[in-house]
Amino acid sequence: MTDTLAPADDRGSLDVRTKAVEHIVANASLEVPGCVARPAGIQKLARSLPSASVTFRGSVAIAELHAAATWPCRAQELASTIRDTVRAEASRQSGIEISRLDVTLHVVSADEADGPGHGTRRVL
Predict the structure, then answer these.
(1) According to the lineage, what is the superkingdom (predicted)?
(2) pLDDT digits over 17-32, tens only?
(3) Are strands 97-108 and 51-57 parallel, antiparallel or unpaired?
(4) 73 vs 122: CA distance, rounded Å
(5) Is residue 50 reached through a cis peptide bond, with omega within 30 degrees of 0 on the bond before it?
(6) CB proximity list for 109: less than 8 A, separation 6 or greater
(7) What is the CATH number of the domain that holds 38?
(8) Per the domain annotation, does 35 fall within a domain?
(9) Is 4 domain-assigned?
(10) For range 49-55, the mean pLDDT
(11) Smallest Cα–Cα separation from 52: which of 29, 73, 74?
(12) Distance of CA 3 to CAs 6, 9, 117, Å?
């Protein structure tokens, strides 16, 4: 018994760029001072943060980012800084134009933030 494959054009496609850009966007947000990671499972139904979703319109990306910061913070200023920094850095790293980046900032308690330093990085 021999299985024959349909022509390549009829079999669909695999596009890894969406997940790759989502990963880049989420990780780039952690480079912004004040932005922290929050693991899933701290609260019921809570997702891990940061998380991103990306949609492509041709070669241009539109992204949505959910990020976290600990209280107290200047939420509006931090969200704006995250948006500008992540958009530039993700475009630089991926080589893809990100035409719009919508940021939702979740303010979490220090107990919910992940790891020592709550998102700050120390290079030795």
Answers:
(1) Bacteria
(2) 899 999 999 999 999 9
(3) unpaired
(4) 21
(5) yes
(6) 70, 71
(7) 3.30.70.1350
(8) yes
(9) no
(10) 96
(11) 29
(12) 10, 17, 56
> What residue ranges in the chain does DSSP mark as E strands?
35-36, 51-57, 60-70, 97-108
Q: Look at residue 122 in the predicted model and tell me its pLDDT.
A: 42
Asked if residue 35 lies in contact with residue 78, where contact means CB atoms within 8 angstroms, the answer is yes
pLDDT tens digits, 56-104: 998 899 999 999 999 899 999 999 999 999 999 999 999 999 999 999 9
* 102 part of a folded domain: yes
For the chain, the domain total comes to: 1
Cβ(43)–Cβ(106) below 8 Å: no
Q: What is the pLDDT of residues 5-20, one digit of tens each?
A: 777 677 666 567 899 9
Tokens read off for 62: 């539109």
What's the domain range around 72? 16-108
Helices assigned H by DSSP within 41-118? 75-94
